[in-house]
């Protein structure tokens, strides 16, 4: 289906909107917003502004607010429009609908009623953060927002401690320091992590470090803007020196010592210092023609601090 070929067929269209940079709206999303019979939005003011930026006129079409607080009342109106054969475009305040978004119940009700549901994919803070954080992306778990209260937050983190994947959270900037401190206690202070802030915006920033290091940073520094926290996977069992060396030798085939240490420490959820020291000794031993370190090699100084 190409929206430019004619009117939109009846159904519910889930339109991803930019998470910061207005130019991230896709051409297809713009077409759907331009041609849908009815527009629904988590935040109607944000959608109106986005449409104005891209020169998309409302042309007298109804725009329905649909959010957490009015879903039960607004849903019947949208379902009624679908039943009458209309096309309805639903947009989140930012990002992809249904990802930390109230659209889940709407989609479920539309499908139960037999209406077509179509996605116009685009921006997502989860995926944007994963691409720039430098943590493994082969497996990840999106955990949304953690509970605000300390006890429930610690319990939720404890349930995730053994998950063999990169963990992705949304967090309020006001709670970031407390969340990172709780994560360091529940998941391990040495777990590699990243804080991605204001993605796609002018002041985009990504800070990396261990959970303990980031918790210390944000204990005294106030974060601003939209925040995504990523935590690298932990190790479910102790990695033997021989397994560590095997991973390092493979990485050192194509990487510098520094990059190999970064890669392998993230892979195994280990503290970078130990891995970096072992990588330096392996590299030196290889250059000298002896690739066997043994298990009792001294830990030399870490020139990476």
From TrEMBL:
Enzyme class: transferase
RsmI HTH domain location: 241-282
Bias-annotated ranges (Acidic residues): 291-305
Species this protein is from: Roseivivax isoporae LMG 25204
Tetrapyrrole methylase domain boundaries: 12-215
InterPro entries: 4pyrrol_Mease (IPR000878), 4pyrrol_Methylase_sf (IPR035996), 4pyrrole_Mease_sub1 (IPR014777), 4pyrrole_Mease_sub2 (IPR014776), rRNA_ssu_MeTfrase_I (IPR008189), RsmI_HTH (IPR053910)
Reaction equation(s) it catalyzes: cytidine(1402) in 16S rRNA + S-adenosyl-L-methionine = 2'-O-methylcytidine(1402) in 16S rRNA + S-adenosyl-L-homocysteine + H(+)
EC number annotated for this UniProt entry: 2.1.1.198
GO cellular component: cytoplasm
Name the UniProt record assigns to this protein: Ribosomal RNA small subunit methyltransferase I
The UniProt record lists the keyword Electron transport: no
Role noted for this protein: Catalyzes the 2'-O-methylation of the ribose of cytidine 1402 (C1402) in 16S rRNA.
Similarity section: Belongs to the methyltransferase superfamily. RsmI family.
Residue numbers spanned by region Disordered: 284-305
């Amino acid at each position: 289906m190409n929206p430019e070929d004619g009117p939109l067929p009846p159904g519910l269209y889930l339109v991803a909107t930019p998470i910061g940079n207005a130019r991230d709206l896709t051409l297809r999303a713009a077409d759907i917003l331009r041609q849908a019979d009815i527009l629904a939005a988590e935040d109607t003011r944000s959608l109106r502004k986005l449409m104005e930026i891209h020169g998309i006129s409302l042309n007298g079409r109804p725009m329905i607010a649909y959010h957490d607080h009015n879903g039960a009342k607004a849903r019947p109106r949208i379902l009624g429009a679908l039943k009458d054969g209309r096309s309805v475009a639903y947009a989140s305040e930012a990002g992809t609908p249904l990802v930390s978004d109230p659209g889940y119940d709407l989609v479920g009700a539309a499908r139960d009623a037999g209406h077509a549901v179509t996605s116009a994919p685009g921006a997502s803070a989860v995926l944007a953060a994963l691409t720039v954080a430098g943590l493994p992306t082969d497996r990840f778990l999106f955990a949304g927002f953690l509970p605000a209260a300390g006890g429930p937050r610690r319990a939720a983190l404890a349930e995730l401690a053994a998950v063999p994947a990169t963990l992705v959270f949304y967090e309020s900037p006001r709670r970031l320091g407390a969340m990172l401190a709780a994560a360091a206690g529940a998941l391990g202070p040495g777990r590699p992590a990243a804080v991605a802030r204001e993605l796609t915006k002018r002041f985009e920033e990504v800070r990396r470090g261990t959970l303990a290091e980031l918790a210390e940073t944000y204990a005294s520094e106030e974060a601003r803007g939209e925040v995504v926290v990523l935590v690298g996977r932990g190790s479910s069992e102790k990695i033997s020196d021989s397994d560590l060396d095997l991973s390092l030798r493979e990485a050192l085939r194509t990487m510098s010592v520094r990059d190999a240490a970064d890669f392998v420490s993230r892979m195994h959820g280990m503290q970078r210092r130990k891995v970096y020291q072992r990588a330096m000794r392996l590299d030196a031993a290889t250059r000298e023609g002896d690739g066997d370190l043994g298990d009792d090699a001294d830990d030399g100084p870490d020139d990476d601090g």
